[in-house]
Design brief:
A five-stranded mixed sheet has the order 1-5-4-3-2. It has a single domain, classed as Roll (Nuclear Transport Factor 2, Chain: A), CATH 3.10.450. Helices cover about 50% and strands about 30% of the residues. The protein has helices at about 1-25, 25-45, 45-50, 60-85, and strands at about 55, 85-100, 100-110, 115-125, 130.
Length: about 140
């Protein structure tokens, strides 16, 4: 009986690992997780890690990317000052438009008690989901 139980437990554990690995490849799950991770970096003030979560498209040179990133970050920081510190970000819904493009709708809860629903386009670039800064 104990041997059968151990076999069943091993199979169940393996199944859980496989399901988790597949779940991260699902665009709905992966793009939502990537957005939550990026917003976490922004809330902590880790601008370098947040910057790495952004996609500017391939048509911008590095100088223009740096300028756009600086403006984007300033916008986010002003938003944070006006609305207060964000306490939590939760994914509300994800629309997958293509294998490499999704729109993530999310809710931000602020320390003031206010909530805001917003959305961002996410693009899969080099195997990572990133916030699309340009249309």
């Amino acid at each position: 009986m104990t041997r059968q139980w151990m076999k069943w437990l091993s199979v169940a554990a393996l199944g859980l690992v496989v399901m988790t690995a597949c779940e991260d490849k699902d665009p709905k799950v992966a793009s939502g997780k990537a957005l939550i991770k990026a917003m976490g970096y922004l809330q902590k003030g880790d601008t370098e890690k947040y910057y790495n979560c952004l996609d500017f498209g391939q048509e911008l040179d590095s100088l223009t990317q740096a300028q756009v990133a600086k403006m984007w970050l300033m916008h986010q920081q002003i938003n944070q000052r006006v609305k207060g510190q964000a306490l939590a970000t939760d994914v509300v819904k994800v629309d997958v438009l293509a294998d490499t493009l999704a729109v993530v709708y999310y809710k931000i809860k602020y320390e003031s008690g206010n909530e805001e629903v917003s959305s961002n386009k996410m693009v899969l670039r080099d195997g990572q989901w990133k916030i699309r800064v340009r249309n």
